[in-house]
Specification:
single chain; 868 residues; 9-stranded mixed sheet; 9-stranded antiparallel sheet; 38% helix; binds adenosine-5'-triphosphate
Length: 868
């Protein structure tokens, strides 16, 4: 059965059981401070489990893109080494939100595996939670009893808290789980060791395929467990592992999910899969990682130097490094897999197909720059090896190479070994640990439990219509970080404060308490589905109703920049073409920034056209046409564009200004005229194929014009108010160039006159032609002079002292044929340098010294004779 069909059957099965089938949520998370990427199928539904959002569909099923490369779930170092862990994988899942529980979850999982997919029952084992003393939890008898009705009791295995109690993170919803494992070994092997003994023992052919989680507790900050008000089902089945089980193979990489990519790598690199262990690992790493990188780029996360972008960069670099070391790839090649990937996954995940070119270019560029860095690192490593005397490279040096040049430690080890050197691994790890501890300390957050004052389903946002409102606190908590110290997070029953989102920064403002206290709201952010207000202080009375007031001026400026961003987007597509897609946006009160896909520099004339287009729309004073809560399809039919990597609900908000229509939750002006004026400040590259425009509107443009005007007036004033300032500056530049040329000529003449004078001053001392003089030339001219004299006078000892702006310089030239260890310019100048309170050195035939005491020059010149 093909993987396509396997996926479809899963979805169809649960559709038949009244589940709503939803598309995968984006890989990269936006409103979750605890997590960068979706690492499990349940993540997009967190707000339901946390009770922060009203549940519309109690049963849902889907396939979710997951990435396990950071935080609590990190499989990165396993990937490629083993055959069943991936960075990016699909998790098939079915959910019940306060609807069915253990009985159905267990029964349906069994039905699907054994009746639809027809997996032999004798290949399956299941686990149930054995209980835990510390958490005061009992054996999961309920699950055991349901399993007993489907499967022989000797195939039910007890599991401990580590394997059979699922937790989202340090805090939050959790519960016992039952895993389903499949034994894919041959009959011979099974006869030797029973499968039961290999469950959860990291055997590559006895693997977990499905985890059924029974969410029934909430873990609080102090570690204690409380019952959830409603019980939920959360299941996750590894799609690639299921394909392995159903396609009769014993490695995920032998399924049709991976074989096309592997064939492609074989063709490109001329290495075959299945012949050599190291080669195989490298090929697995590459075909796995290219998927992770491609999917995150298509969801809007480009490789970069920080946060989620850095995680992606590291994944790609791991693949490049394996290719470099084990497949001999010294030129970019991973990007060439994009086409095969898009052909294979594009139907189910259209974002891959639609952004094939972008993915291709970004990966290629990353490969290029990392391979260049590797080259540079290799040179540095050579130098380190040359300077290492005891054949053991220090951990500090290896760490420096890693930290500043991105040069991987294992590569350092490999190369060192080839040359008969070792690397101090312990030292390296110690440096690494130190760095980790430092960044951990800097980003440590202490979050207390929510203090719930009022049970409230959803916190309504009323900020599109009002900038202040009478509200009350429904819950609050204290958060302590190193950076900000103690802060409070307040949630209201409703709020006029716009939470950071869609590129627009969160509102600021204040709360007017009834006792006259004013508490400032420093920022507003969304956390899952909660709108959280950040304050430095907690109101004295947390239960009163008070006035929440948004900073009107800043909101107005943000709105102006947000509307301008929409017009800019429209202008870009008009002027550059419809390939332009939004790739990032930042809307602040002071400025806006817009990243978009485009493959060349935007020419100045195009920038002018874009600016003109936006300003024309501003002058038209187009009214805002806002449609709230319309079905997403209706908005798309009207011409709105959905962005990749954005999570949209069933109903959306559409914002129209003239012909610009966007799906947008941000705040906007009522008429474009309020923007006043739009001015582009810069255009630059962010990554391969992604450009950035930074611009200003409204009051910032006023400030900008004033600043330019002031500068211009100042320039004119300095130039004594010429009629044509530009011409005046050009004249100055020309005059300056001419003067420079003249000076150069004068200096040359001076030196040549000087040379003649000096030639007359030669003294014969012990067969050496000695010249000493004080000259007023700069160091370069003195050097020229010395070499010219040296060319004309044999057996020369030439010494000069010059006083340049209060600093003394001594220069000594000795003809090469008479310079030796005794008559050594470097040594002599070092000695004499003391007289000018300085130091210096150089070679035997030429050397200089600088010092701060020009009055010593005379004595130095006098003493020089003594060396002959
Ligand atoms: P394992 O112990 O094998 O790492 P897990 O306990 O981490 O699995 P869960 O968190 O329960 O797995 O995830 C649910 C399912 O997702 C697993 O049963 C498995 O089929 C699949 N899965 C988990 N991690 C990976 C991965 N890194 N690559 C591919 N599939 C995975
Ligand atoms: Mg795991």
């Amino acid at each position: 059965m093909t993987s396509q069909k396997i996926r479809q059957q899963f979805l169809d099965f649960f559709k038949d059981k009244q589940h709503k089938i939803v598309p995968s949520a984006p890989l990269v998370l936006k409103n979750d401070p605890t997590l960068m990427f979706n690492n499990a199928g349940m993540v997009p539904f967190k707000e339901y489990f946390l009770g922060q959002k009203t549940i519309k569909n109690k049963r849902i099923a889907d396939t979710q893109k997951c990435l396990r490369v950071s935080g609590k779930h990190n499989d990165l170092e396993e990937v490629g080494i083993d055959t069943y862990h991936h960075t990016l994988f699909e998790m098939l899942g079915n959910w019940s939100f306060g609807d069915y529980f253990k009985k159905e979850a267990i029964g349906w999982a069994w039905e699907l595996l054994t009746e639809v997919y027809k997996i032999d029952k004798t290949k399956l084992y299941v686990t149930v939670f054995e209980g835990d003393k510390q958490d005061n939890l009992d054996f999961d008898q309920e699950a055991y009893d349901f399993w007993k009705s489907h499967i022989d009791e000797d195939r039910i295995i007890n599991g401990n808290k580590k394997d059979n109690f699922w937790e989202m993170g340090a805090q939050g919803p959790c519960g016992p789980c039952s895993e389903i494992h499949v034994d894919l070994r041959t009959e011979e092997e099974k006869a030797k060791i029973p499968g039961k003994d290999l469950v959860n023992k990291d055997h590559p052919q006895v693997v977990e395929i499905w985890n059924l989680v029974f969410m029934q507790y909430n873990r609080k900050a102090d570690g204690s467990l409380v019952d959830l008000s409603a019980k939920h089902i959360d299941t996750g089945m590894g799609f690639e592992r299921l394909c392995m089980a159903l396609q009769g193979v014993t490695s995920n990489y032998d399924t049709d999910v991976f074989t096309p990519l592997i064939r492609e790598v074989e063709t490109i690199t001329n290495h075959n899969y299945g012949k050599d262990n190291e080669t195989d690992i490298a090929i697995r790493v590459i075909v796995d990682h290219v998927r992770a990188v491609a999917f995150s780029i298509s969801d809007g996360q480009l490789p970069s130097n920080t946060g989620a972008g850095y995680v992606i960069r590291r994944i790609l670099r791991r693949a490049i490094r394996y290719g470099f070391t084990f497949l001999d790839q010294k030129e970019p090649f991973i990007y060439k897999l994009t086409k095969t990937l898009s052909k294979q996954m594009g139907d189910v995940f259209p974002e891959i197909k639609n952004q094939e070119v972008l993915i291709h270019n970004v990966i290629k560029e990353e490969e290029h720059s990392f391979l260049r860095a590797l080259d540079q690192g290799l040179l540095l490593l050579d130098r380190i090896i040359d300077n290492t005397k005891d054949k053991n490279i220090s951990g500090g040096k290896a760490f420096e190479l890693y930290d500043t040049y991105g040069f991987p430690f294992d590569l350092t080890q490999l190369i060192a070994k080839e040359k008969g050197y070792t690397v101090d691994e312990e030292g390296f790890n110690a440096h690494m640990q130190k760095q980790k501890d430092r960044s951990k300390a800097a980003s440590a957050v202490e979050t207390s439990d929510w203090n719930v004052l009022v049970e409230d389903e959803e916190e309504e946002f009323i900020g599109y219509d009002s900038l202040n409102a009478k509200v009350k606190i429904t819950q609050y908590r204290k958060v302590t970080t190193k950076k900000d110290g103690e802060m409070y997070q307040l949630v209201f029953n409703m709020t006029p404060f716009y939470p950071e989102g869609g590129g627009q920064v969160g509102d600021k403002g204040h709360l007017e308490m009834n006792n006259g206290d004013v508490i400032y709201v420093l920022d507003t952010k969304k956390e899952n589905n909660l709108i959280v207000h950040y304050t430095k202080h907690l109101p004295k009375n947390t239960t009163e109703i008070f006035n929440a007031v948004v900073n009107k001026e800043q909101r107005k400026l943000s709105a102006s920049n947000h509307t301008a961003t929409h017009l800019l987007h429209q202008a870009l597509r008009k002027v550059l073409g419809n390939h332009v897609e939004q790739k990032g946006s930042l809307v602040k009160p002071k400025s806006l920034r817009f990243d978009f896909s485009h493959f060349a520099k935007v020419e100045p004339q195009q920038l002018q056209e874009i600016e003109d287009f936006v300003n024309a729309r501003i002058r038209e004073n187009l009214p805002l046409v806002e449609k709230r809560n319309i079905p997403i399809q209706e908005a798309i039919d009207e011409g709105a564009m959905a962005l990749f990597g954005e999570k949209y609900g069933d109903s959306v908000r559409a914002i129209r200004f003239g012909k610009s229509i966007e799906l947008c939750g941000g705040t906007h002006v009522q008429h474009t005229g309020e923007i006043w004026y739009f001015k582009i400040k810069s255009e630059s590259a962010v990554a391969a194929g992604i450009r950035r425009i930074e611009a200003i509107t409204n009051a910032a443009v006023g400030d900008y014009f004033v600043e330019i005007d002031e500068n211009y007036e100042a320039i004119k004033h300095v130039l004594k108010n010429p009629k044509e300032p530009v011409k005046a500056i050009e004249n100055l530049q020309e005059e300056n160039a001419n003067l420079k040329k003249q000076i150069e000529g004068f200096l040359k003449d001076k030196a040549s006159n000087l040379k003649d004078e000096l030639k007359d001053k030669v003294q014969q001392i012990n067969g050496v032609n000695f010249i000493s003089a004080e000259v007023s030339l700069d160091a370069n001219s003195v050097k020229d002079l010395a070499f010219q004299l040296g060319g004309e006078i044999k057996d020369l000892f030439f010494i000069t002292g010059s006083n340049i702006d209060g600093k003394a310089i001594l220069t000594i030239y000795i003809s090469k044929n008479i310079a030796n260890d005794k008559l050594h310019a470097g040594n002599i100048v070092r000695d004499l340098g003391k007289l000018i309170q300085g130091g210096g050195g150089g070679q035997a035939f030429f050397a200089t010294a600088g010092g701060k005491n020009p009055s010593g020059i005379k004595e130095a010149l006098e003493k020089a004779k003594g060396y002959l």
